[in-house]
């Protein structure tokens, strides 16, 4: 727990009241995604009793997948499963188009089988993620996180106002409770005491629901039957079947889920580490593995696929309760509810406009997280085009849906199912294109007469071309300034400056003919000391302090080389 504020970090042990309240908040926010498996069951022609059983299994699948993701420890023969952050798993729209089509064509059996295939694809991809790092740079991750926040925010506003494409006009029926809930959440998060801040969403959901019913609006309930007695889950309700022809849509959904979970895990890493520099790929690989295992288990259980829940990242940041134990509690909570007949109906009785208010509240924090990730990198023209066009083309999918419905073939439309998928594919394609002929190192011949400004501009251009972190580029610029200060007394002729920047290290080397830059005598007022050697020694000490590693040597041709490395 942080000092001065009530903050529960990754490995903390929140009090029981905070733990249970946080679990309830996340489960309430996750409940809205149960509508996806309900739609799939209805598309397959399931009767009311089958729909009830399907939702029970859906809650079981959410609980199991959440436990996988929040585990973050070795499991059986696997070295590590799950990212270990407060990052629950929910049903996702990424699989919905393919699942609806498959449910109509082959029933719930085919949905389960194709979901198993999608889960296996994610598991296999998690084993080779380290090979595709150059094609998933941090700026694309930032774009993903920002797009997710924007998309969730738009969905939230539609839920709050009850908007649908079939509506002739927008009606604000039910928005009173949503507005009341949102006001409470904002007020508690901004001005509430630490205990109230941690419960902002839960209190907002309670107030919004109470206002919703007090206004006499009522909540839409799914048309499923409820048995009054307790009973065990009946499983299996379907036997999975497989069809190669249905596979492309699910593989596209799996790819979208991989990239979305990538963004969610980076956002979680950044939220839990104030000194975050770059993605922890070992952690992400374990998280993608858990995401795949969760979807695989969902298929074996008999439901559709799942994915990490971006809204929970925003909620944990807003309430400052990020403890892994909350995630484990959420998983256990959903498994427990799955064994209580009728619990799915009770969970889904929370008014959708009020759930929209909670989703909007969390979305604001997700958008800011994406912008912050983008702001940590210098972007040249190529990277700016990747991010900018990926964003603009992505959001155009929802703005001009009729155009894409006519322009894209039926097969492509099954793959490009949302603005997130379109924006991702655009950014990935542009990034791969711009890697063709990309310069791995850059060289400048610099003379002391040109001054430090020319050297600094060269370093800034090189850093922007490679998407270097702003803070580390500042250190490299300081190193260059210190070298330029000492250079007139050392070099004879031009200096060759070479940069080699990648995702992990900024490397700049200076090569010149003349005397070496080396440690000098300790600073003193003694008139007999070699003042020039003393000042150069101070410069060398500063360069050493600014660098994470320094290497100096005399080349075979007699020239001197100083190489400085700064970790990103």
How would you describe this structure to a colleague?
The chain is built from 21 helices and 9 strands. The protein has helices spanning 16-30, 35-43, 48-71, 96-126, 138-161, 175-191, 194-198, 200-214, 247-272, 281-301, 310-319, 324-338, 343-348, 352-375, 381-399, 401-407, 410-415, 419-434, 452-465, 470-486, 531-546, and strands at 73-75, 78-81, 89-91, 306-308, 442-446, 491-501, 505-514, 549-554, 560-567. Helices cover 59% and strands 9% of the residues. α2 (35-43) packs across α4 (96-126) and α20 (470-486) packs antiparallel against α21 (531-546). The chain is α+β, with helices and mostly antiparallel strands and 568 residues long. Residues 219-226 have low confidence and may be disordered. A 5-stranded antiparallel sheet has the order 5-6-7-9-8. The radius of gyration is 28 Å and the shape is elongated.
